[in-house]
Amino acid sequence: MTLPGKAPTHPGRRRPFYRDLSFQVLAGMVIGVALGYFYPGVGVDMQPLGDAFIRVIQMLIGPIIFCTVCSGIAGANDLKKVGRVAIKALFYFEVVTSLALVIGLVTINVLKPGAGMNVNMQDVPSGMVDTYVSQAHHVVSTSAFLLNVIPRTAISAFATGDILQVLFFSVLFALGLAAIGERAAPVLNVIDSISSALFWIIGLTMKVAPIAAFGAIAFTVGKFGFGTLLSLGKLILEFYLTCALFFIIVLWPIARVNGFSLLKLMRYIGAELLLVLGTSSSETVFPQLIDKLERLGCEKSVVGLVLPTAYTFNHDGTCLYFAATAIFLAQATNVPMTWHAQLVLLAVLLLTSKGAAGVSGAAIAVLAATLAATNSIPVASIALVLGIHRAMSSAFVFTNIVGNSVATIVIANWEKALDHSTLRAELNIGYKEADAPIGALKQQMNGAGQ
Fold first, then answer.
1. Residue 434, exposed/middle/buried by CB under 10 A (0-12, 13-18, 19+)?
2. Average pLDDT for consecutive 10-residue bins of the chain (450 residues)?
3. What is the pTM of this model?
4. What CA–CA distance (Å, rounded) separates 342 from 326?
5. Which of 139, 233, 313, 362 has the fewest C-beta atoms under 10 angstroms from its C-beta?
6. Domain 17-440 is in which class?
7. What is the residue extent of each domain of the chain?
């Protein structure tokens, strides 16, 4: 007999493979590729399916970050712990993103995919990049970037969907709740209730994720075609190789030292990784990652602080992209880049990459800002990579998601806020998708623990 409010479970019965979200997303992508290839016009018309899904998730990201950060910080009841976690997280982010930039620079210099292209900038249509050039001027200045972290009003941060501003307000509000102690309990109860409702919506939204992946990939193939996507194949292959090297050289050893398998973690979040490959948007999987990282044994307070911060400051894949693309454009346009100039570029990237979460058109816009700041590589040269940006963005968003998941587990381990037995058990068994929406499951779990 099934208890009221509980999803029916059948011990020993395996869930049919066709009901698994990972399989459904993969199937949607395969069908989307076929449609975009054979009927490109129809494929382009499928764009609203992917855009609608992303908009729904973006609509919920701000409130979810607010609820997650408030529950994590205020629920910890220890401001010293919050500060300690934040310092460890920022230290980790800076070290790992620096390693990503170094790997990106070394690989692009060894393989040199842009050498010999001899692009004449007079032949490059600058009108294609005017929007990104104008955005670049808004993030070149360090003071402007830091000032932009502070929203003009609390509401405007949520209205514009600026993750950095939402995070700034959420942290301040959470610290205020923590400071007033027991009087914050009613507010935290309301926040937890709102969080459950938001996750319930996410649970329903994820049911159409395969359709969104289908629409996004059909549009990409229909719009650009395989020919365009492979026209700069050397750079694409070099970048995919760079991402693979980052997994092997950096993430795999970090995971091993902290007592978990990187491959098993990637399998556990497999549905999310497939989804970001199809949509090229990391925001689409933020709520699901919160749920899965908590299931893996990370304390809620650590997940609530580290993961939103990682989305802003820990762009491993994006840093690989910036380093590889910037030097590729220098090679293609015959701009000499000494090691001293590349070290200056690395220093600039360490700053500008942190603004990627708060800029519309993130990666391309911040790349334009970086080139403008170095004042050597022509900003208009980014027109050369616009056609293959989608193919590359899938790889760096994929890397970002894995990097952020690893970072959260590592910080939890450093804080002794990780249940290793739960982590091992979950990774060995693999994620078992339940029939109930995420929010309902979280509510049941929270109720069982009270």
1. middle
2. 40 63 83 87 87 82 84 73 87 93 92 79 57 53 68 85 81 87 87 87 84 83 64 81 96 96 95 85 85 92 88 87 90 86 82 55 70 76 75 88 96 94 92 54 44
3. 0.76
4. 10
5. 233
6. mainly alpha
7. 17-440
